[in-house]
UniProtKB/TrEMBL annotation:
Organism for this UniProt entry: Nocardiopsis flavescens
One Pfam family this sequence matches: Acetyltransf_3
Top-rank lineage group of the source organism: Bacteria
Record-annotated N-acetyltransferase domain positions: 10-168
Lineage of the organism: Bacteria, Bacillati, Actinomycetota, Actinomycetes, Streptosporangiales
InterPro entries per record: Acyl_CoA_acyltransferase, GNAT_dom, N-acetyltransferase
Name of the protein this chain belongs to: Protein N-acetyltransferase, RimJ/RimL family
GO molecular function (one): acyltransferase activity, transferring groups other than amino-acyl groups
Length: 173
């Protein structure tokens, strides 16, 4: 779903094919790829990243709103620092999952939390009444983002990706 949001430090916008080189620094980084869902195919060069972006851009209009995949850009220098997505969790496709990926050199500055707050606020305005996040139990940083967002721990499950995951949920206050 088409989106353009701004926060104090960030801009959340649609992906563009020309983001490939910068996106590779995020999704091509081993520290990031390691934590992505099992369906993620590693990307090793800008050409492969461009193909992934092309697929994301093409798929966008067909997703069930407010699902989407967006780029996170730092306002002060225009650098692409991360990606954010809202997608339906498999296999039942009823629950919207928020996912984050940041370029490793910008971890620890609160960008994932700041971008997520804006995206979640927007998603609630679109009419959904809960957002989930799932994290492997040892993904300390992802669990940290969920906690900072005020998400409630719902439990542990293997129902989504055939792997043990911690489940967090946020509902509008
Ligand atoms: C998950 C991920 C996005 C978290 O990144 P992060 O930088 O740790 O998270 P935030 O952007 O919320 O930053 C929080 C950190 O910034 C600090 N921080 C600094 N300024 C801050 C601010 N203004 N607001 C919030 N936190 C701030 C926090 O204290 C925290 O510090 P810590 O490093 O001591 O934990 C990142 O580790 C990543 O890309 N991981 C790989 C992909 C992944 O695991 N995705 C999740 C599964 S989909």
């Amino acid at each position: 779903m088409s989106l353009e949001l701004t926060t104090d430090r960030l801009r959340i916008r649609e992906w563009e094919l020309d983001d490939a080189e910068a996106a590779l620094e995020i999704y091509g980084a081993a520290e990031v790829a390691h934590w992505l869902t099992p369906e993620w195919q590693p990307v090793n060069d800008a050409g492969a990243m461009r193909s992934v972006l092309h697929a994301w851009i093409e798929a966008g209009p067909n997703l069930i709103p407010p699902a989407g995949r967006w780029a996170i850009v730092r306002k002060d220098d225009g650098a692409l620092v991360g990606g954010l997505s809202l997608k339906l969790l498999p296999p039942y496709e009823e629950d919207f999952e928020l996912t984050w990926a940041l370029r490793p050199d910008v971890w620890g500055q609160g960008y994932a939390t700041e971008a997520s707050r804006a995206a979640i606020g927007w998603a609630f305005e679109q009419g959904i009444d809960e957002v989930f996040a799932v994290a492997r139990p040892n993904n300390r940083r992802a669990v940290g983002v969920a906690r900072r967002l005020g998400m409630e721990w719902v439990g542990e499950t293997e129902k989504y990706y055939d792997m043990r995951l911690q489940v967090f949920r946020l509902r509008p206050v």
